[in-house]
Amino acid sequence: MEHSAYCALVDKHRETILDTERHIWRHPETGFKEWKTSAYLADIFERAGYTLTRAGDIPGFYTDLDTGRPGPKLLILGELDALAAPSHAEAVDGCAHACGHNAQCAALIGIALALKEPGALDGLCGSIRLMAVPAEELIEIAYRDSLRRQGVIRYLGGKPEFLWRGYLDGVDLAFMVHTTVSSDTVFSCRAGSNGCMTKEAVYTGVAAHAGGSPHLGVNALYAASLGLQAVNALRETFQDGDHVRVHPILTAGGASVNIIPAEAKLSTFVRGATMEVIRETNEKVNRALAAGALALGAGVTVSDRPGYAPLVNDPGMMAVAKDCMTALVGADKVDFNTSWGCGSTDMGDLSCIMPVVHPYVSGASGIGHGDDYRIADPETACVLSAKAQVMMAAELLRDNAAKAKAVLEGSRPRYASKEDYFAAVDAFIADRSLIVYGDGGAEIQF
User: Fold this and answer.
1) Domain span at residue 218?
2) pLDDT for residue 182
3) Of 62, 104, 188, 323, which has the fewest beta carbons less than 10 angstroms from its beta carbon?
4) Residue 171, Cα to own-chain centre: how many angstroms?
5) What's the chain's Rg over C-alpha atoms?
6) Which among 285, 281, 284, 238 has a CA at the least distance from the CA of 266?
7) H or E element, residue 53
């Protein structure tokens, strides 16, 4: 089947695609809470004849479409979650799709419906797994960590959680297309982007009357402020090529102006281009945080969790994506380059164990994660995106999956197995005091 024929299959479902984008925009839900979004998509899938495997105690599902001929298993994903964005112009219950995942979901519907059309799988081999995955935005860490402690989830992001649950077992390669703000290009892709870990720091002091007896207190807020200054003083030690980003915020700093704060809290990500860079930077940050506590005689504990691994787009997958997207819109509207992104996505976790590609499609306007972000051109963000992804799937799996097999032969993922990957990310988990005070003075623990 020619590219134009695949595009025609998507066009048959244009109205459903666009209706899906609008519906999900009006019903945003944050990570691991996307029950309505998941149910809405699942209903469309099931009415189209798909049999779904649901995650059960968290939102999301997947389904397999088999060509009837042996070959690789290709995964195509769409993300369900919105952002907590109470000041967004169209926020609903404090949430908004300020990153465009509503368009991803609409495109996934277009892909699913097109691939169910007669003849869509002719000439292809292997199978295609379509997946609606929760919780890509790494937000509401306390809520997610509570789910982790309850045993509902093990990882804070939807893709590593699905990987842990075995929902990607048997998958050989994967892709998804993310929405971005409109520009001179329609499709774009970088070499990769940062990974990250999450860090919560709690400073503890001693409460006292802020006016009458401040000398009897230990000011946890001042200790946290010094810790923040020490972190900022580290910035010139970060090498440009490591793409380090550390951006802490103060989340609690006292309950009453007339009481020396006995507790202050910080929250941050530690981002970098490699797992080693993230680990080394985290050690520096711990030293800085401990220095603030030590200066005031306060205590400080940290809770570290694995966030997302760095994304490394596979060159072979990039080449297939670029060729399909160029055929769709022309070379002047496609920009695939070797630049590096400093944000993070849990698509990076999948890139640790299999070849993946994570391109972008235009169609949004405003500032990403901003109060004015919205899908301004749904034809591009949803319909054209679905066409590109169906074309990519066909290109990888046609001719006895020659291109998919070439990608797999040339791919060198960082970890040999998901078990090796999990062992690496689990090493980031820590709950510990950075300083212990005793009769002999203070002991710093890293």
Assistant:
1) 195-308+428-444
2) 76
3) 323
4) 19
5) 24
6) 285
7) strand 53-54
Listed as ranges, residues in the chain with pLDDT below 50 are none
Q: Are 85 and 371 in contact (CB under 8 A)?
A: yes
Q: What pLDDT is attached to residue 443?
A: 80
Q: Is residue 179 helix, strand or coil?
A: strand
Q: Of 222, 209, 204, nearest to 260 (Cα)?
A: 209
The residues facing 375 across adjacent strands are 364
**In a shared domain, residues 107 and 218:** no
Tell me the two tokens of residue 89: 């112009």
Name the pTM for this structure: 0.95
| Tokens (6 digits) for 112 | 């699913």
d(CA 243, CA 230): 19
Residues 245 and 303 grouped into a single domain: yes
H or E stretch including 374? strand 374-375
How confident is the model at residue 439, as a pLDDT? 80
Residue 419: inside a domain: no
DSSP 8-state symbol, 383: I
State the amino acid at position 283 in one-letter form. E
User: Count of CB atoms within 10 A of residue 16's CB?
Assistant: 14
Please state whether beta strands 334-336 and 187-189 pair in parallel, antiparallel, or not at all (unpaired). Answer: parallel
Please give the backbone phi and psi of residue 45, each rounded to the nearest 5 degrees, phi first: -60, -50
320 and 184 in a common domain: yes
